[in-house]
Design goal:
By secondary structure, the protein is mostly beta strands. Helices cover about 0% and strands about 45% of the residues. The strands form 7 sheets. Strands 18-19-20-21-25 form a 5-stranded mixed sheet, with no helix packed on it. A 4-stranded antiparallel sheet has the order 1-29-28-27, with no helix packed on it. A 4-stranded antiparallel sheet has the order 2-3-4-5, with no helix packed on it. A hairpin with a 3-residue loop joins strand 28 and strand 29. The protein is globular, with a radius of gyration of 19 Å. The protein starts with a strand and ends in a 7-residue tail after the last strand. It comes from Buteo japonicus. One of its GO terms (cellular component) is spindle pole. This is WD repeat domain 73.
Length: about 375
């Protein structure tokens, strides 16, 4: 395997550390990054990618290889999660000290400012951790948010109207949530339970099912992939990743059973597993990436996995952040988030706690995928 860092930048500003969201627009695509330093003045930036990332096919060397800042703003609180609201010019962020959301307006063409336009409170959110968020624009621009199972709700972003409140008395902390489609939600608890919910049945109590063979005492997160074209939401693959490096692949039609499992050779995460991340490749069937343990991103091909749980070898490890120096705390950089490019099969973006943003890909010499 040969890795090419298409772009590496240091962007953290006063916040130092970065979270990231890929902003999918027609022309061009962009990247939003934000800082999560504990002091005030955390930057939120929308970046235009270099031309090499705006074309679907590789076109060789390009003289312009840098991101350009399109617009920006400042948050007076750390940004731990950042999501673009599809079909709008809005961003939604969350972070300590509570579970409320902040809504931001990305600048119009005649301005270079990202400005705050409001906040969305969480019902029963007092004293709760920062909220996990997901966005969709099926009927209207919605944000799914909550920090615990009994505080999950959907809010219409523009009107701030609450359109769904989950029925649960379970106060398990959430590590992630996702829209499977306009009606179906998937929630992941930090202790390793998955929960399906239907927006059309708000009174139905939520039932959390444990990830198969989930070791106790580990923190879990999830990643939801795309199902085959034309299939329903139940065929979307789900990967669950633990802070101990256990990876379990499940079927939404029976979350109590695993399709495959493996053990990843990773160190114990230095951040208390706050930034564990697992994501499926949108254009490479069976491929996924994990991060949040150290300054690396591991890529795996899961197509040959079985249910034995044996140790799996990554097909590639991106180590670029690990060589970037120390972060604001003086420790080695930690990858805080990664995401796949939607059209370029083997291109990923990753951000780290030293404020670095990398765009990279790898060449697979065996020619088995592509």
């Amino acid at each position: 395997m040969v890795c090419t860092i298409i772009q590496g930048s240091r962007l953290g500003g006063r916040g130092g550390s970065l979270t990231m969201s890929l902003v999918l627009r027609a022309h061009p695509q962009g990247v939003c990054v934000a800082g999560y330093g504990q002091s005030g003045g955390n930057e939120i930036l929308q970046l235009l990618p270099p031309p090499t990332l705006q074309v679907k096919e590789t076109q060789g060397l390009c003289p312009e290889r840098d991101f350009k800042v399109e617009c920006g703003g400042f948050s007076n609180r750390p940004v731990y999660s950042l999501k673009y609201v599809p079909d709008t010019s809005l961003l939604v962020t969350s972070g300590p000290p509570d579970s409320s959301l902040q809504v931001w307006q990305v600048s119009a063409e005649d301005s270079d400012v990202i400005r705050p336009v409001g906040a969305i409170p969480t019902v029963n959110g007092t004293g709760q951790p920062w909220a996990k968020i997901a966005t969709v624009s099926a009927r209207a621009p919605w944000v799914l948010h909550g920090s615990r199972l009994n505080s999950v709700q959907i809010t219409e972003v523009e009107s701030r109207k609450n359109v769904y409140m989950a029925a649960s008395s379970n106060s398990e902390e959430l590590s992630g949530l996702a829209f499977l489609d306009g009606n179906t939600l998937l929630l992941c608890c930090a202790k390793g339970q998955l929960c399906l919910a239907d927006v059309r049945q708000p009174q139905s109590p939520l039932e959390a099912v444990s990830v198969p063979s989930a070791p106790c005492g580990e923190r879990w997160c999830m990643g939801v992939g795309r199902g085959p074209q034309g299939s329903d939401s139940s065929s979307q693959p789900v990967a669950c990743l633990s802070s101990g490096g256990h990876l379990t692949l499940t079927d939404l039609r029976k979350t109590s059973e695993s399709l495959a499992s493996a053990k990843c050779r990773v160190p114990s995460p230095s951040s208390g597993a706050e930034f564990l991340c697992v994501s499926w490749a949108p254009a490479l069937e069976g491929y996924l990436a994990i991060s949040g343990f150290d300054g690396t991103v591991h890529v795996y091909d899961t197509q040959s996995w079985d249910s034995s749980g044996r140790e799996a070898e990554p097909i590639f490890v991106h180590r670029g952040h690990a060589f970037g120096g120390s972060d604001s705390s003086g420790g080695p950089p930690l990858v805080t988030v990664h995401t796949w490019h939607p059209q370029k099969p083997r291109t990923l973006l990753s951000a780290a706690s030293d404020g670095s943003l990398h765009v990279w890909d790898w060449v697979q010499s065996c020619g088995k995928c592509g």
